Amino acid sequence: MEPQRGLLESITNRYSVWVRETLNELPDSFTITDPSISGHPIVFASNGFLKMSGYEMGEVVGKNGRVFQGPKTDRRSVLEIREAIRQEKSLQVSIVNYRRDGRPFWMLFYGLGFRETMIGSCRREVCSDSVVELSRVLALDSDGRELEVEEHCEASDLEKTKAASAMNNILSVLTHYSEFMGRLVCGKRCCLAGMGPLGSSLILSLGRIKQSFVLSDPHLLDMPIVYASDAFLKLTDKGKKDKSSFWNVLHISPVRNASGKIAYYVGVQIDEGCKNHDKNGLSPEMRQHSAVGAVKVAVRSLSMVAGTSES
Amino acid sequence: MLRIKRVPTAVSNFQKEEAEEGGGGCGRNCLQKCCIPGAKLPLYAFKRLNKISGGKDLLNPEDKEPPVAFLDSLLLGEWEDRAQKGLFRYDVTACETKVIPGEYGFIAQLNEGRHLKKRPTEFRVDKVLQPFDGSKFNFTKVGQEEVLFQFEASEDNEIQFFPNAPIDVENSPSVVAINVSPIEYGHVLLIPRILECLPQRIDRDSFLLALYMAAEAGNPYFRLGYNSLGAFATINHLHFQAYYLAVPFPIEKALTRKITTFKGGVVISELSNYPVRGFVFEGGNTMEDLSNAVSDSCICLQENNIPFNVFISDSAKRIFLLPQCYAEKQALGEVSPELLDTQVNPAVWEISGHMVLKRKKDYEEASEANAWRLLAEVSLSEERFQEVKALIFEVISCRDKGNPSVSESLLEEEPDDKPQSLEEVDALNKGSRHPMVSGECLVLH
């Protein structure tokens, strides 16, 4: 069955036509919903999710997440999820869902709301608050444990971490594609801290660099952005009058670790608006260079201690 | 006359083999009379400090925010710009590096490219002071593109920055230039009063300038170093080196044993439990007090023809002075072939614990014991070190007439300081700080 065209476009319009393919390549089980559309429908479901739930894409897209709920689903958890969506908060909760054939299973629900900001339009526009719903099946045996749905089942820390890193990947894909479209997904940084591939000491060092930059990891699929500086989030949040002037001053450079191998690519932006009131300072180009330098020193130095250097 | 053969490292792209150096026109935008008229360079003017502050954060709150962050924006920005322009001989961030496991955390770097394409050259190592020779390579011959900015004291006592300042020949500018063979990111050379063509020789003003640069960077991971002739300086044109490496150096972690408090509150200690014997200078009521204590000691060493290295650490709050004799030993054939084979030149960075290795084998086998063995060869013997110490103290206490306590404390200490020092070291090793030491710290900081 073909899903409704409009719903599929909800995501491709916003992120580019390629985003679905990339999302489909992620191994994780997840859905993306769009609260800006009436009924808050699912607009994307990953292959992993379809396999897990036994549904086909066309049966899921356009439906609200409640279709997976059933008699054993804890109402309090459902309310928690609803409240988290309303407040744009992230949430991890274990909940009973039902497969297409009616068999119940526990899954770890991880919801993360993120705000989109238009860049390149004349006004600051919050076009939607999308919610990514990520579900991971707990490591259950195919039959046995499913009967124990009466007992509450808490996800292990490992499962939570896996879910968090999967969420990070999804956000990275969306961020990557939204950049192409001149928009940016700003996942809330507090939700992401500590779960990306970057160590906490590196995040701390990078946090001291004042300029606007992002790091992307070429070793991951589609080179997702793994770090965005505060200045970058501010800069992209402010809204750009002229898209081209923003991209003109993008500077990309490889960043190597202590093994001398390329670990990341750093992309540094300069807010054109800053150019004028800084006549007596450094040129924007020089400030871009200095951010590149600071990132290079941080990445190299922090990967020098034995055991932490990637090879 | 003592000489050693070694492969010199090119610090400038204009540093050619002597033979290749032709006469004739310049046409390369250098810093000599031919090219300097009309030339412009950024100028960073620092504020003279009257007091040593604990760091940037302790600066007077009335101070205006500097127009440009010296290290984070200016130096790194200009350096990366030159990297993008391809002025360096290699990408130092592509050189493998690691902290060697162990108590001290020696740092090893494999740098196979640094010494390629160069013939071994003879260096005279038995004269610490040699006259400037304009026919040899010097920094007025570098291309202007290798110079990052001019660095001088501000006239109106406020930090100032001019992106495009003319080079004032009369004013004898000091400049910061890249080292085209960097051993870490941000490796630069500070060349005091470049156009005066001073030989490699410490004087009070130049040394103070180096301390100002370290203080201006305001980052403990940006250190300056100095090599005298005979202690692996290769260019006889006054210069300091500096680079940015965000890990502690072993020498900074070494225990110290206080010797005395000198004029102006400068505390002089000696390194204990470190392979190279040396002095540590810290404290002082003003940066100038600290600077003069060190530069006077350096002047004493160079006048007595004793090669030495200086390591300016902790944003100019701690300065290490290390007399050495490796080159002399090498010239006399007293260094083991095994150590010579590594071709490591123990200059200031190596002595401070950053070992730049040329062979993969040495890098892979790098251990604390190996580093220690090499550095132990660099150190003066205990006997010689005590002689040098006496020499330095004689000179600086003569210049320190106003303070009788120094000679007193010297008298107390000199005849038999062994038992006491061992006790102090023990106390430090056990982690209990000597009460005197902590008392001093409170007064000084």
From TrEMBL, chain A:
<keyword id="KW-0288">FMN</keyword>
<dbReference type="Pfam" id="PF13426">
    <property type="entry name" value="PAS_9"/>
</dbReference>
<dbReference type="InterPro" id="IPR000014">
    <property type="entry name" value="PAS"/>
</dbReference>
<keyword id="KW-0600">Photoreceptor protein</keyword>
<keyword id="KW-0285">Flavoprotein</keyword>
<dbReference type="GO" id="GO:0005634">
    <property type="term" value="C:nucleus"/>
</dbReference>
<keyword id="KW-0157">Chromophore</keyword>
<keyword id="KW-0716">Sensory transduction</keyword>
<keyword id="KW-0675">Receptor</keyword>
<feature type="domain" description="PAS">
    <location>
        <begin position="19"/>
        <end position="88"/>
    </location>
</feature>
<protein>
    <recommendedName>
        <fullName>PAS domain-containing protein</fullName>
    </recommendedName>
</protein>
<dbReference type="InterPro" id="IPR035965">
    <property type="entry name" value="PAS-like_dom_sf"/>
</dbReference>
<dbReference type="GO" id="GO:0009881">
    <property type="term" value="F:photoreceptor activity"/>
</dbReference>
From TrEMBL, chain B:
<dbReference type="Pfam" id="PF26216">
    <property type="entry name" value="GDPGP1_C"/>
</dbReference>
<dbReference type="GO" id="GO:0080048">
    <property type="term" value="F:GDP-D-glucose phosphorylase activity"/>
</dbReference>
<feature type="domain" description="GDPGP1-like C-terminal">
    <location>
        <begin position="250"/>
        <end position="397"/>
    </location>
</feature>
<comment type="similarity">
    <text>Belongs to the GDPGP1 family.</text>
</comment>
<dbReference type="GO" id="GO:0016787">
    <property type="term" value="F:hydrolase activity"/>
</dbReference>
<dbReference type="GO" id="GO:0005737">
    <property type="term" value="C:cytoplasm"/>
</dbReference>
<dbReference type="InterPro" id="IPR058866">
    <property type="entry name" value="GDPGP1_N"/>
</dbReference>
<dbReference type="InterPro" id="IPR026506">
    <property type="entry name" value="GDPGP"/>
</dbReference>
<keyword id="KW-0547">Nucleotide-binding</keyword>
<keyword id="KW-0548">Nucleotidyltransferase</keyword>
<dbReference type="GO" id="GO:0006006">
    <property type="term" value="P:glucose metabolic process"/>
</dbReference>
<dbReference type="GO" id="GO:0000166">
    <property type="term" value="F:nucleotide binding"/>
</dbReference>
<keyword id="KW-0378">Hydrolase</keyword>
<feature type="region of interest" description="Disordered">
    <location>
        <begin position="402"/>
        <end position="421"/>
    </location>
</feature>
<dbReference type="Pfam" id="PF26217">
    <property type="entry name" value="GDPGP1_N"/>
</dbReference>
<dbReference type="InterPro" id="IPR058865">
    <property type="entry name" value="GDPGP1_C"/>
</dbReference>
<keyword id="KW-0808">Transferase</keyword>
<keyword id="KW-0963">Cytoplasm</keyword>
<feature type="domain" description="GDPGP1-like N-terminal">
    <location>
        <begin position="71"/>
        <end position="243"/>
    </location>
</feature>
<dbReference type="GO" id="GO:0005085">
    <property type="term" value="F:guanyl-nucleotide exchange factor activity"/>
</dbReference>
<protein>
    <recommendedName>
        <fullName>GDP-L-galactose phosphorylase</fullName>
    </recommendedName>
</protein>
<keyword id="KW-0344">Guanine-nucleotide releasing factor</keyword>
